[in-house]
Amino acid sequence: MFCFNSHHPILFFLFICFFTTTSLAQKFEGKPKDIDQILENITAFSQHVMNSDYDKIADAYTSDAKIFPGNQDILSGRERIKKYWVLPEGVSTSYHKITPEEIKVIKRHAYDYGYYEGKTKRKDGTEVTWKGKYVIVWKKEKGEWKMLLDIWNRI
Q1: What is the reported pTM?
Q2: In whole angstroms, how far apart are CA 78 and each of 57, 62, 74, 83?
């Protein structure tokens, strides 16, 4: 058995660095300004979903965006995307959170992937929880990061 003590300060330092950095799940690569805007857009998107603000949800996507919902065809364009997100009367999303594992910016495009989770309140008042994984390809459009491709599926 190996013990850390004052005779092995370098090994102790390396041990701490290794376990500290590998326990952090998020990896972001790119200009901090771009990463910050993407993170802000992720947070805002969740808020728009919880507010049922379908215009702002649609505006989070590029004009030529595509979404890939589970068990459905690919949907193209903001109007079709907006229609997808509209919930039936009496149904709402009470909680929505996106947690990126990695974001990588490559010039005017970026990708991020990670996990999402949420709660849907049904007409009868019951609540359903759900979670899944996602991949988003971002595109910088007129100085703003917007979603170009959005694919997800439940876990």
Answers
A1: 0.82
A2: 9, 7, 13, 8
* DSSP string covering 101-153: EEEEEETTEEEEEEEEEEEEE-TTS-EEEEEEEEEEEEEEETTEEEEEEEEEE
Instruction: In whole angstroms, give the CA distance from residue 47 to residue 43.
Output: 6
Pairing of strands 127-141, 144-154: antiparallel
User: Per the structure block, which two tokens stand in for 95?
Assistant: 């909680």
What's the rounded Cα separation, in Å, for the pair 146 and 127? 30
At 40 the pLDDT is 98
Q: How far, in Å, are 2, 5, 125 from residue 8 at the CA level?
A: 10, 6, 60
CATH 3.10.450.50 for the 28-154 domain, yes or no:
yes
Could you report the per-residue pLDDT of 29-43, keeping only the tens digit for each? 999 999 999 999 999
- Residue 74 φ/ψ region, left for φ over 0, alpha for ψ in the -120 to 50 degree band, beta for the rest: beta
Residue among 123, 50, 58 nearest 93 (CA) = 50
